[in-house]
Design a protein that fits this description.
The complex is a heterodimer. By secondary structure, chain A is mainly beta. Chain A is built from three helices and 71 strands. The chains are: A mainly beta, B alpha+beta.
Chain lengths: 832, 835
């Protein structure tokens, strides 16, 4: 229980703060340090990501790989660089071929920073991108991406900052290079007359933060062409150049923003390899078969392939590449998978109709083309209409979607996508039984590469889950938190998270994604964030597992079970934050690689220097009161200083926050006070307490197992009899019981809020220690007969609050029957 | 698309106008008028009047409330015209008319008569007819009362025309909204402002006549015509009147152009309002007069203009939302002026000479080759010439004009030309990562640079910006719609940038000093109402598109404001054509009277330190061009050459006017307006930094850009923020106004140049000019020669060489002495200014 004599409780301060304008400095100095609404969602996301991976000093981290790619049929030495790469580390990869570990180079002073392997890639290896990671006794490393092609590999050599310093290349070639800040790398090539070459830069597609620009200069230094973002390559660049005459030319690569990036590598590929820049359709149903056409680029004619779509559930894409002939140069397209039936637009018999919950694959072939589909609806029916194009990365369409009725009148539909592709939430108006969906390009463009995927689903809905964590090392005897993000597609119920097949050595806590919460303006919105924590049991042996998190939602009759998609690898790109016109900073989302098909690799990591323990696992917090949760930082050695204790991001619930009552540096034990106000909605969520430590001068974050918190009312009124009978001139007792939460000690005042005319009732007060109450109601003579709904109203002062504001309880309804001799039987009910 | 001129009453008064001040006081009758009369008498004594004429030459009165000011203009034997009104004797022949104490003629009774005029020893007559005086002439609010409220200051911004009114009484600013004002007067505070039973006890009369306490004091007395008019209006039941019939279609102001041979003279202005019902009346006393240069000429509130000193002024005459500007030129009476015709290179010189000759200003001589080289290099490419370039140009014996023209051609092909002019556009277009994100900013910069490099026709450049659709990464021109995110601000930015017009005042009310109305503001904004912006798939990417919905609501009526141009309506509105396409065609049309003029004026200002209209992005009636003929000629030439900016620039720098020295003579020393000599300009922040870099051989290194970037290549103000460039006035790119770039000289700047690292580190750079000269063992004379040429772009004079040699000679530390010399040159006026 919290101190009762303090002048102002945390709960009250929340209430005061909530009455101030958003964004004002409304919290006290201590409250401002809380991880609450003061932090923007994007920043919270990053904090959660960082905090969810408690870094031990020895956890392996991969920083570089040399080379970044390999040639089919060739053997080469692969060098991994990073930290914590202890001897005995295992390389984890699906890279085809043989992998032989080599002794560390002799000139390396710290052996655990370098790992070397001899790799032999077979001739028939599939060109593409392959993840690499290592596993040591201290856990898993992050992923780096390695690519396979038919181009000879060489490294970039500095200085090559100008045409005068250009590094000579022999074509074909793949150059692994880096750009340090505003660096520009120049290369010289010799082309024959009318030679056509593909000049391509891989960067963002292979896990680099570089947004490359490639330029070609003639022998005089005059720029001939340049490319920043090529169709189908995201922000990567490609030029297809016909050199007019034989001679020397220069190729330059730089970042489009000249920005400084931690992941600053790129691969420049120059050769005469075939490539396509268009694909259609853009996706298909998992496990089915479809003819996929690759076209454009330097292909003489389109190429049809039949990709294997037998990918496990949760995998969002499969790779589709040009089949021979060699040489292979470009990376594959990512072809979308779905679990819905799919069809092609204009398929025989379709008659322009859009079947519900079926993906239609179409494209706008001509400039200004508009594709129209008819959709059968019922008045009042809610629909989600989803158009995917630009976000797939394989379409040049900036889609526009509109809904019209039979008379051609545009119907109101709300775009709920929040992104590049439209997603309309639409309710069919009265009398409307058929609507027309119109798909067009925002710019009025069209062409073979303007493909799209369109699906209309009843809003009753669905959701998808994404992990905010690429992998987890659960510290020995410690805890790791995993953040899960729900994207709701019409489903607004709660989601319960679980990990099937969780090794017995780990204990799972948390896993609640609430249904709806109130934001700070009191507006209801679906909750989209949840946490699970994994805690390693004390005697756990080293282990590694590929786990998946599943969500359970829906109803017993219609359960919705979805697998959370892992980001594969993730990082932040510097310089992708902007200030909007009102001066607010707009951070961007981390870059993720779900196409790698990696869900949740988990390993037992090294023990942490300290553990954070909390006293509770399940908490019932009374609305309007504070709840203190005792915590303790248990140190495992010397040189550890506790800097702060708080909690990972809470759901955006009105007036809900936590405060560390003992946030003084160096204090190991204390109480986290979870505060709420009288307006805090009744929700259930998980609190993940976290502590910031200084370990031998380095900062480290640890977390505690999740605490499930349920906001509840201070008390509940129960009537002994849900109906009362009263006659004119008579009396009746309206009796009941006050069921209190243990921490609530206030006196409850009860009255009948709306007695019928000529009926009066005496109020009742129920002090602490008592529970029963009785109201005496008396009817005057001549009272009107009838069956009346009456309401018991109650209020109480919450202990510890000084604002004198009374807690008002939603009225409890009962029926009061005023009649002659006979009284009907009815039941009382509680209204909320 | 073809255009026709909109028959707008206000359009016809475009042209020259005068600078106004909001705080113009309301002066009623009673100014001291003895000084002008004395001057006129002196003039009459000096010149012989050879003819007189009367304005009007005949007169008809048809209302008892009318009055008329009669002008008497004399022609002298010096071919000048002078105002004799105040010395003339005007005598009515009978009792049909009378003159009041201020010299205004009033009708008395129906009949015909003549006014005998005697002035300058000459006689004339003016026939006058008075009729229909007994015919009732109802007094209306819009035609009679509102002009009085405006004249006596009730609707001024400092009084009840303020945004929140004054003391609980709010009127529209300068009476732009008569319906609103009528409503406030009649219905506000339960109609307490007028007394139906006893009109003379109405607050509207008691307050301005100070019969009850009035914060604004007494505005007119109970004997005045204004009092009588308002009383009559109250007595007649406060009729609002017919707004259509009472609409002033145009003002006739006489004279429209004033040239005075010397200061001290005066000129009576007569203002006649022509109404839409075909009637006209003298409103000389009700009109307002404001001079843009009161120190040269100023007018009383009943239209008597008095010249104070030599110079030019524009007098803005304003009445009921109509404006006319009277240009006034006061010549110097200084004897001995002799026009010396310098060579004229092109039409610019002709137009400038014409004006200079008229004003008795003698232009400065042309610059030397060295001066020209430095000036034109800084102006065209933003960096000074190198020592090699200086030496080569000075040695070149090609005839001067040919040599200079060739140099201009070479400079315009330099990459720095693209840097320099792209920087200007980057500033104006607010190319700033704050609005565009880093990638958008870089892509926008590339687009601007490409446009400059290929000398994209200006109308095409603007058209592409205004009609840009799609990704701001793939079509960088679309970034234009990210620098302002609301239709109103997009409109304000567009009009200020490309028309040189500031519409922003009309957001809340009719523009107080311009023709633009509140309604026009929203109608023009409506062209941007259907611009859609949504996120693209790439980080921070935005896609600009045209929505098929979206409207602007005109706040005054609560109705949708139709997309409508304020002038030059297109003859045909094409169905299905996007609003932005229509806007772009209208705005970039060669018939648009502002579009070409605005850019020509802007470009001109980059070479002459001021625009022909200045400020360049505030073109309005009350801010007239200093040389309309010059601006018109430049504009025509620019349009005739298909909006070719390089042609415009080449024409300007080829002119003798551009090539005049900054040294003045006795006839132009006090002229900073008419381009009779060059005005020294402090180097801009980027020019200064690059000049220091080039002069010292010490290259500045900026974070976040490739290491060989010049300051003028920087993408936005985030690079090098808070340092030297900001101190010297680099704009932050938050506004489309030229004024955001500061060109002042401050103590902080001086201290930075004297003690700061920018100069200090540059002169001491181990790879810099001094170090290289010392290391190669250059003798003192070579060091001196090199430093002068590198820094001031000219060889030192013999005296300078001698002084410098004396300074260096025998020094134990030649390096430091040489550094001192370079430091001194870098801090010299000759280096810091473009002269």
């Amino acid at each position: 229980m919290i101190d009762g004599d303090r002048s102002s409780s945390l709960s009250q301060r929340f209430e005061r703060a909530s009455r101030r304008p958003p964004g004002s400095a409304n919290l006290g100095p201590r409250l401002r340090s809380l991880v609450t609404r003061c932090l923007r969602p994007g920043l919270l996301f990053l904090l959660a990501v960082i905090a969810a991976r408690p870094l031990s000093a020895v956890e392996p981290v991969l920083k570089d790989v040399e080379p970044r790619g390999g040639q089919r049929g060739k053997a080469f030495t692969l060098t991994l660089k990073g930290e914590g790469l202890a001897t005995g580390a295992d390389l984890i990869t699906n890279l085809p071929g043989t992998v032989s570990k080599l002794a560390p180079p002799r000139d390396v002073e710290t052996p655990d920073t370098v790992l070397s392997y001899l790799i032999q890639i077979p001739e028939d290896a599939a060109p593409g991108a392959y993840p690499l990671r290592v596993r040591t006794a201290d856990g898993l490393s992050n992923v780096l991406i390695f690519t396979v092609s038919d181009l000879p590999e060489i490294p970039e050599k500095e200085p090559n900052d100008s045409i005068a310093q250009a590094q000579p290349l022999t074509i074909p070639v793949a150059v692994s290079g880096t750009l340090k800040g505003p660096d520009q790398d120049f290369f010289s090539i010799t082309a024959t007359g009318r030679e056509r070459l593909v000049i391509e830069v891989e960067a963002r597609r292979i896990g680099s933060a570089i947004d490359p620009v490639v330029e070609v200069f003639d022998s005089t230094g005059r720029q001939m062409v340049q490319n920043d973002d090529a169709p189908g390559l995201g922000v990567d660049a490609r030029l297809d150049v016909m050199f007019p005459r034989a001679g020397k030319y220069y190729v330059a690569v730089h970042d489009s923003k000249f920005s400084e990036q931690p992941e600053n590598f790129y691969r420049l590929k120059i050769g005469s390899y075939a490539y396509a820049d268009g694909i259609f359709p853009l996706g298909w149903q998992r496990g089915k078969s479809v003819a996929v056409t690759l076209f454009g680029g330097n292909l003489v004619s389109p190429v049809v392939v039949y990709p294997n779509l037998n990918a496990p559930e949760g995998r969002e894409t499969v790779a589709v590449n040009l089949p021979g002939p060699r040489p292979a140069g470009s990376l594959p397209f990512q072809f979308r998978l779905s679990d819905l039936p799919e069809t092609l637009a204009g398929a025989p018999g379709s008659a322009g109709e859009l079947p519900p919950s079926t993906v239609v694959n179409g494209r706008l072939l001509k400039l200004g083309e508009v594709d129209r589909y008819k959709l059968k609806v019922s008045p009042g029916e809610k629909w989600i209409i989803d158009l995917q194009s630009a976000t797939l990365g394989t379409s040049q369409l900036y889609g526009s979607l509109a809904v019209y009725d039979a008379q051609g009148k545009r119907l109101e539909a709300k775009d709920v996508s929040g992104g590049a592709d439209p997603k309309l939430a639409f309710t069919a108006p009265d009398k409307v039984r058929e609507v027309t969906l119109a798909v067009s390009d925002l710019r009025g463009q069209g062409g073979p590469a303007y493909g799209y995927r369109l699906v209309a689903r009843p809003e009753a809905g669905d959701y998808t889950l994404k992990l905010a964590t690429p992998y987890v090392n659960v510290p020995a005897r410690g805890t790791a938190a995993i953040k899960v993000i729900a994207e709701r597609h019409g489903y607004d119920g709660p989601i319960r998270l679980s990990i099937p097949g969780l090794p017995r050595d780990f204990t799972l806590a948390g896993g609640n994604i609430a249904a709806e919460v109130l934001d700070y303006e009191g507006k209801r919105e679906p909750s989209t964030v949840g946490f699970v924590t994994l805690t390693a049991k004390p005697d756990t042996k080293p282990l590694t597992a590929e786990l998946s998190i599943w969500g359970e939602g829906g109803t017993a009759e219609h359960p919705i079970r979805r697998r959370a998609v892992g980001p594969g690898l993730m990082f932040i790109v510097n310089g992708e934050e902007m200030i909007n016109l009102t001066g607010d900073s707009i951070p961007t989302k981390p870059t993720t690689y779900p196409w790698l098909g990696i869900d949740l690799p988990v390993a037992l990591g090294a023990p942490l220097p300290a553990a954070l323990e909390v006293a509770d696992r399940n908490v019932r917090e009374v609305q309007g009161m504070d709840y203190p949760i005792a915590y303790k930082v248990v140190k495992q050695g010397a040189g550890i200083v506790t800097k702060n204790v708080g909690g990972l991001e809470l759901p955006t619930v009105k007036d809900l926050g936590i405060e560390n009552k003992h946030d003084l540096k160096g204090v190991e034990e204390g109480k986290l006070v979870l505060g709420s106000s009288l307006d805090t909605p009744l929700v259930k969520f998980d609190l993940v307490a976290s502590a910031s430590l200084e370990v031998n001068g380095k900062e480290q974050t640890i977390v505690a197992p999740a605490v499930s918190v349920e906001l509840v009312r201070a008390y509940v009124l129960e009537l002994k009899s849900q109906r009362v009978e009263l006659k004119g001139g008579g009396k009746v007792e309206l009796a009941g019981v006050v069921r209190r939460e243990p921490v609530f000690t206030g006196t409850v005042k009860i009255n009948l809020g709306d007695p019928p005319d000529k009926v009066s009732c005496t109020p009742a007060e129920v002090p602490n220690g008592k529970s029963e109450f009785s109201l005496t109601c008396e009817a005057a003579t001549g009272v009107q007969e009838g069956d009346f709904e009456v309401h018991l109203v109650s209020s109480a002062t919450i202990p510890g609050r000084t604002d004198k504001r009374e807690y008002t309880f939603p009225p409890v309804a009962a029926r009061m029957i005023i009649a002659g001799e006979k009284v009907a039987q009815t039941e009382a009910s509680q209204t909320r | 698309m073809t255009y026709r001129i909109r028959a707008n009453r206000r359009f016809q008064i475009l042209g020259v106008a005068a600078q106004l001040t909001l705080a113009a006081g309301i002066a009623l009758a009673g100014e001291d008028t003895t000084k002008p009369a004395a001057a006129e008498a002196k003039l009459l004594a000096a010149y012989k009047v050879t003819a007189i004429r009367l304005i009007p030459s005949e007169l008809v009165f048809s209302s008892a409330s009318e009055y008329r000011k009669v002008l008497v203009i004399g022609k002298t034997d010096q071919s000048n015209e002078t105002d004799l009104t105040r010395t003339a004797k005007l005598t009515p022949a009978g009792d049909c008319v009378r003159f009041d104490e201020d010299g205004y003629l009033h009708p008395v009774k129906d009949g015909e008569t003549r006014i005998a005029v005697s002035a300058g020893g000459l006689e004339a007559e003016m026939p006058v007819t008075v009729r229909d005086l007994e015919k009732p002439r109802p007094v209306s609010f819009v035609r009679d009362v509102e002009p009085i409220l405006n004249k006596v200051g009730c609707t001024a911004g400092t009084c009840h025309g303020a945004a929140k009114g004054k003391n609980g009484f709010k009127l529209s600013l300068r009476g732009y909204d008569p319906e609103f004002d009528y409503d406030r007067l009649i219905h506000d505070v339960s109609g307490r402002r007028f007394n139906r039973a006893d009109p003379a006890r109405s607050l509207i009369l008691l307050k301005p006549t100070a019969q009850v306490p009035h914060g604004g004091g007494m505005r007119f007395d109970t004997d005045s015509q204004y009092y009588r008019t308002i009383l009559a209006w109250l007595s007649e039941g406060v009729p609002f009147g017919d707004t259509k019939a009472a609409e002033v279609e145009r003002l006739e102001v006489t004279p429209s152009d004033i040239l005075m041979p010397e200061s001290g003279l005066s000129q009576q202005i007569v203002v006649v309002a022509h109404y839409s019902d075909g009637t006209a009346r003298d409103v000389t006393r009700e009109a307002s007069y404001t001079s843009n240069t009161p120190s040269v000429a100023e007018a009383t509130q009943d239209g008597l203009l008095t010249s104070e000193r030599k110079g030019e002024a524009a007098l803005l005459v304003r009445y009921e939302g109509n404006f006319v500007t009277v240009s006034t030129t006061i010549l110097s009476s200084k004897p001995g002026f002799q026009w010396v015709q310098l060579p004229q290179h092109n039409y610019i010189d002709e137009a400038v000479d014409q004006k200079l000759r008229k004003l008795r200003i003698l232009p400065s001589p042309p610059v030397t080759d060295a001066e020209f080289l430095r000036r034109v290099s800084l102006d065209l490419i933003g960096v000074p010439p190198t020592t090699d370039e200086v030496e080569a140009f000075l040695k070149d014996k090609t005839p001067e004009r040919e040599k200079r023209a060739r140099l201009v051609g070479q400079l315009m092909k330099r990459p720095e030309y693209v840097d320099h002019w792209s920087l200007k556009w980057g500033d104006l277009l607010k190319s700033n990562r704050k609005f565009l994100g880093q990638k958008g900013m870089w892509r926008f910069r590339d687009w601007v640079r490409q446009s400059v490099a290929e000398n994209k026709p200006y109308n095409q450049f603007v058209y592409e910006l205004l009609t840009a659709r799609g990704s701001n990464y793939d079509n960088p021109a679309a970034n234009y719609f990210l620098i302002a995110d609301q239709p109103n601000t997009e409109m304000e930015t567009t009009t200020q940038l490309f028309l040189g017009v500031r519409f922003v005042c009309a957001h809340c009310h009719d523009h107080p000093f311009e023709q633009w109305t509140n309604k026009q503001y929203f109608e023009l904004s409506a062209f941007f109402a259907q611009v859609g912006i949504r996120d693209g798939a790439r980080s921070l990417e935005k896609v600009v598109y045209d929505k098929d919905d979206g409207e602007i609501v005109f706040p005054k009526t609560g109705r949708v404001a139709p997309a409508h141009f304020p002038y030059l309506q297109p003859a045909h509105l094409t169905d299905g054509e996007g609003r932005r396409q229509l806007l772009a065609e209208w705005l970039t049309s060669k018939n648009n009277p502002y579009f070409a003029k605005a850019i020509v004026n802007r470009v001109w200002s980059y070479f002459f330190a001021r625009g022909i209209i200045d400020p360049v992005d505030d073109i309005r009636s009350s801010n007239p061009p200093i040389n309309p003929e010059l601006l018109a000629a430049l504009t025509k030439d620019f349009i005739d050459h298909h909006f070719d900016l390089q042609h415009l620039i080449r024409t300007i720098v080829d002119s003798r006017t551009y090539q005049l020295s900054s040294h003045t003579n006795e006839w132009n020393a006090d002229d900073d307006n008419n381009f009779s000599h060059a005005l020294p300009r402090r180097l801009t922040a980027e020019e200064l930094m690059d000049a220091i870099s080039i002069s010292t051989g010490s290259r500045m290194v900026f974070k976040d850009v490739p290491k060989d970037y010049l300051a003028e290549e920087l993408p936005d103000s985030k690079v090098g923020m808070g340092g030297f460039l900001d101190l010297f006035g680099r704009p932050q790119r938050e506004s489309p106004c030229e004024c955001e770039r500061r060109s002042e000289v401050s103590l902080k700047q001086a201290l930075n140049l004297i003690n700061g690292p920018a100069v200090g580190d540059a002169v001491a750079d181990p790879d810099g000019r001094i170090a290289r000269l010392i290391l190669k063992g250059a003798p003192d004379r070579e060091i001196i020669q090199d430093l002068y040429v590198a820094t001031l772009d000219r060889p030192p004079t013999a005296e300078e060489v001698q002084k410098a040699q004396d300074y260096l000679k025998g020094s134990k530390n030649r390096t430091e002495k040489a550094q001192d010399l370079e430091w001194a040159l870098l801090n010299s006026y000759a280096f810091l200014f473009n002269r």
